[in-house]
């Protein structure tokens, strides 16, 4: 028997699920992690989540569920971090096919549970936006979490919902989440980060980077996302809480509405009606804009000057840290240049690299 973890939001939640698996169960048989292949435009130029038809080299687990292998590749023009994640994480990464809505995901879950006969099934969400009502002003990415919650709410197998790093995604404030969180299942420790440390060096997930940073003891105010959203890094960051599934479904209006959906297009339309937007529409708009922008080569001297100016301004906003994704966007660079920028900065000022975040120089 093994364990099944459903990483509710995609790439970053997968890394956190790997940390959780190691923390709860140690070096035993690794879990199977079921998730969306949804990297956003930082790694995938094609808007929306990927389906099995977007990859070669997948391994069938059941009739409708496929696992990534190290040899899997996205079919251009799509991009994906998941083959590399599959190669570097010990867990088996299984792919959610979102094309048939919550009903399709439910059927995939039921197939996988029959095949695995898992000793436990956990949903993991980092940040807590799976508890969003749908009208929060900071809400940006509700769809994957809501689809996951809708699908899991209709299976017969007992499912435990876990929220790690309350508030770290900046979508639902930590203060609003506190009254909803159940018991503290565990508090992650630095040794739980080390197995995924190499992954955090290259993966673009901001929320998982901040989760790992808080686990490593980093505290302060971190700027994230394209708008420079300030995220407090506090002692709550390393905690993992259980939340009643019924409570989550009772709050999440989008998840309740998604339960009968049979297509992704239906799910998108419900998101527009309930939340006022579809995040895939946002990605479509950004993808069109990115396609018209020339990709500029990074000039080290220019980039270092721009970062110094950014640091002065960010310190004026009382920020102490930032993500490399935020820095890349602030400098007007393409998301694929994030690793190049990180390498430049770490080489120039290694003392400011508090992996996986960048510490803003107090002298800036």
Structure write-up:
This protein has 364 residues and is α/β, with parallel strands linked by helices. The chain folds into 2 domains: 3-188 and 238-258, no CATH class; 300-359. It has helices at 11-25, 82-88, 101-116, 143-152, 174-177, 190-193, 197-202, 206-215, 245-251, 253-258, 264-275, 279-292, 300-316, 324-330, 338-348; strands at residues 3-7, 32-35, 55-56, 59-60, 66-67, 73-74, 92-95, 120-126, 160-164, 184-187, 220-224, 229-233, 239-243, 321-322, 353-354, 357-359. The strands form 3 sheets. Strands 4-5-7-2-1-8-9-13-10 form a 9-stranded mixed β-sheet, sandwiched between helices. A 5-stranded mixed β-sheet has the order 12-11-14-16-15. Helix 1 runs parallel beside helix 8, helix 3 (101-116) packs across helix 4 (143-152) and helix 14 packs across helix 15 (338-348). The chain is globular, with a radius of gyration of 19 Å. The termini are far apart. The model has no long low-confidence stretch (mean pLDDT 95).
Give the N-terminus to C-terminus distance in angstroms: 54 Å
Large-scale geometry:
globular
Structural class, judged by helices and strands?
A: alpha/beta
Helicity range = 40-55%
Strand order of the largest sheet: 4-5-7-2-1-8-9-13-10
Main sheet record: 9 strands, mixed
Mean pLDDT: 95
What's the number of helices?
A: 15
The fraction of residues assigned to DSSP E strands is: 15-25%
- Tell me the number of strands: 16
The Cα radius of gyration reads: 19 Å
Poorly predicted regions are none
Kindly give the count of domains: 2
